[in-house]
Amino acid sequence: MASSTQVERVFNFSAGPAAMPLPVLQKIQADLLALPGVGSSILEISHRSPAFTEILKTAEHDLRQLMGVPDNYKVLFLQGGSRLQFSMIPMNLLRGSGKTAEYVVHGAWGKYALNEAVKEGDAKAIWDGGATNYDRLPAAGALHCSDAAAYVHITSNETIQGVQFDGAPAVGPAPLVCDFSSDFISRPVDVGRYGLIYACAQKNAGAAGVTVVILREDLLSRSQDSLPGYMNYKAHADAGSLYNTPCTFAIYTLGLIVQWLRDEVGGLEAMHQRNREKAKLLYDVIDASGGFYRPHAQVDSRSLMNVTFRLPDEELEKRFVAQAAERGLTDLKGHRSVGGIRASIYNAMPIEGVRELRDYMEEFHKLNG
Amino acid sequence: MASSTQVERVFNFSAGPAAMPLPVLQKIQADLLALPGVGSSILEISHRSPAFTEILKTAEHDLRQLMGVPDNYKVLFLQGGSRLQFSMIPMNLLRGSGKTAEYVVHGAWGKYALNEAVKEGDAKAIWDGGATNYDRLPAAGALHCSDAAAYVHITSNETIQGVQFDGAPAVGPAPLVCDFSSDFISRPVDVGRYGLIYACAQKNAGAAGVTVVILREDLLSRSQDSLPGYMNYKAHADAGSLYNTPCTFAIYTLGLIVQWLRDEVGGLEAMHQRNREKAKLLYDVIDASGGFYRPHAQVDSRSLMNVTFRLPDEELEKRFVAQAAERGLTDLKGHRSVGGIRASIYNAMPIEGVRELRDYMEEFHKLNG
Questions:
Q1: Predicted complex: ipTM over 0.95
Q2: Which residue numbers of A are catalytic?
Q3: Which residue from B16, B33, B249 is facing A207, i.e. has the nearest CB?
């Protein structure tokens, strides 16, 4: 167990909502009754108050700086999670365009995204890895995108399968739209290569309740006035994310996470290095286990965020999860569509937690191999 | 200033996000690093974890009990605020019905709701108080609803104008849909008289990020499969509010608020009594001021939640707000469409805070009258 001042904390490998940096939790706790100099809690202040205006502006500014977001991109803080984005994206970027949206489907979330897009217009998969249960990325040269596509949609990291792109694939001139929900701000990103980036916060960027959308300004001209008000990117952009009351607490928390990344971690390159080290600890045990631990993802498609693997049988997998929880290593059960084990090791999972899991995996193998 | 253990807290009259009960804030603070027996923060646990499942079930159970929600109603915890409901309601209840939705517009929010409904189908105002700048409710007998309407929409309390229905108006057999955003759980409600109730949480029910929808089950049959997934009430009902990751923290907070109402306040009848007493303190000063304080709402339409009034001139209004803030009475500036002063005195505003405001109003009148 990781110890804090007064409470016992476990190492929580949940796929999301997920572990948060302890210093961020402590800061939230310290100021919960009243923000310094404000006299009210972050939970109580108006989204239009000077105090929250400052929190919102600072969060956006710091996030732009951390990610290197170009000036011709808007940063929006919305609600509804990636699921709402699955509909907002085609409603704004596809509807009325007379074009086709092209989806690269290398896991469950990409599939869900496509299922919503076809309700809104002409949308299709240009690659689908379902035949191998989504264990890999498209091979080099396998993506054939139309230059005239409304956009091309990819999922940066498939949380359930543990399959991750290493940067943006080449897709031609159509705007690249990317679901970064489970690897947002976990490594440097060349934002200028994307037309639109989106991510829910509850994996790497804090609390559930806020979804970040970063989009190139010229794409806003596609949003039609007839759209439902909340679903219109332009309405949110024009209102500076205050079209209505946003999830103020989650924006505040995201701002603290970004500051932690900048001040404590040292930025996205340093975070990426840490995340590589953490993932390597687990993949090395898997690869050295002589088949006791069977990875789901192909080697060249492996995620740094979600390490997915099977054990020889389901009985052992059950025991693996239960005994792990007894030592304070929780939430290791894999998603039912893949089975087995999933260790989610987002930014906030400290390397000590991953080392404890590594040690446990080696022990468990010895005892049960 | 209200004093807490270590921090100075003001009396915050914000229209929302708004004051929260101090014991609830203290409970959140105490458990912020780790929920008892869980080892992780409420911000870190999966929405599908046993711990959160229990929080969600308890919140729904307690809310049902507090409000007396009949068994044939679903309780949903959604995101996107009332603005998203303005679109979800007609998308689910109007689209494809071949009927008309009828809106009673007695303030700004009802107008916004109608503006979205007309995008989705045949919708119209059957009463609009705009000619008197929304200072009153429809007179008795003034509402003529069609029996064949898809639904009739009202706003229980107009936050900006401070005009509030005292219970459900008679509308005939069409389902009554009501925006309770700013007087939710502030008094008893006969849920069975409504087809659908909705409310964002950040006024009386906690933190921004969750929107409660309570709807009669038979209405779910109107939701078409072709709707965008997140916009479909049936999808949320079938998934027990876990269609995707909800704002877990705001649901947790709402649960604590409901417990506070039950255990500390003594239920909705007791809360209503408190709210009446609080509002009377302010309206009495207004009525005794000989026209120095000019109420916006007509006497029989007055809100118990938002007390709106003008002073003789804007210079005085500015001074009123500024000097109030100096004594720890904050956020009293009215909405620009009404001007003047708005004192929002939701459930969590203690009577001591209202007494301080009352005393201040009397002093200010003496000094400037």
A1: yes
A2: 109, 179, 203
A3: B249
